[in-house]
Amino acid sequence: MRKKYIIGGIIIVAFTVWAGISFKSTLTPYVSIAEAKQSGKMVQVKGERLDNGYFDTAKNLFTFEIKDEQGEILKVTYDGAKPGNFDQATHVVCVGKYAGGVFVAKELLIKCPSKYQEEGTPV
Question: Domain range for residue 112?
Fold first, then answer.
């Protein structure tokens, strides 16, 4: 009887450790632009949108710039179409990694303030 409890306990501990390691590998930390440039890993960078960007139809590549709170500017490329609400966005969160002098985004999270304001309130 005692042997079953020991084996069961070992299985539960092993599963908990495996789940923790698996979960940790899926986390994508928020970092500054300077940290993203040195990281070489998948990270999230938040910045103020500086321009409306440019979409290259031949390469299906959307390129724009953001500026973080420290004033550092980052050129971002996104393999996909320009998000529909990008022009109204004040801030953009880019998920990806820095490579070859640009931040290659795999995902864009658009922060649009008009969604959070009351109707009739000026933007």
Answer: 28-116
